[in-house]
């Protein structure tokens, strides 16, 4: 499965604990990443500044569902389940 261009659920819904350019303390869950373009594409894609956690995410039906709305719901549930 490939990412749906413009979805950006993983760049908004999930928390990222590692620094991101423009977000030195990481990104809280539910906050839009500072590196998302207006078209919801990653400005760091393919660059060394992109956090390893972002590069390691792979699109899957279990994570992304079959629509953007489903991706937001699935990732919200996952974020809630993995909170300390």
From TrEMBL:
- State the protein's name: YkgJ family cysteine cluster protein
- What Pfam families does the annotation carry? CxxCxxCC
